[in-house]
Amino acid sequence: MKVRILGCSGGIGGRHLRTTSMIVDHDILIDAGTGVADLPIADLAQIDHVFITHSHLDHIACLPFIVDTVGEMRNRPLTVYATAEVTEILRAHVFNWAVWPDFSEIPDAQNPFMRFKVIKLKQPTKIGGRTITALPANHTVPAVGYSIRSENGTLVFTGDNTSCPELWAELNGIRDLRYLIIECAFSNRERRLAEMSKHLCPSLLAEELAHMQRDAEIFITHLKPGQIELTMLEVEDSIGDLRPRMLQNNQVFDL
Description:
single chain, 255 residues, 25% strand, 24% helix, seven-stranded mixed beta sheet, 8 helices, Metallo-beta-lactamase, Chain A
């Protein structure tokens, strides 16, 4: 199994800044931020499954465009996996005919271009030898993280998150954890904003990682443009002994 990063920035502003999305092999997306737009149409048409962490635009921006672009090229619906709360938000505020057509009814409800599948926290979904499980998250809207597991190990992506004891309880139970992708949206000078928006800054990140009991490689995502270098310097000062690295576009994880 290969997991490739399509976008990992907290904003836009140039070819190297794409918002959150990663592709598992050729057919599964975890979130659908602006990084998805760099995929050619042939690759978009091969995506069968999209797992959404939460409804904020930087994580779903390309989802409406995917189904609109390749829906008629496919012989089965694109399946969008999300919790009941996130699914309801997507239905009510995106695929509502006012913001975007409801592709779960196009061309008709019996043969749609897209379908929603509600998932539950901690309930595994198995797709061709890969197991994807929603993990607890604490954000300003209903949200989850995901574990992505193959027979060779597990990658955990926290999604957008702040202090979340329930996450660490689950994560510390993953014996084959190899990679942890965790957010750090703001620098320490904006700790108050991080707390208000339920994101992390380096000092908060250090507090969270103190709960980690697994030996995994740590990668930092969701850095805000304009604060990348400062934030990573502060991350190094806070948790340098854990050897964190900044997540990069097109980075590939082999599992």
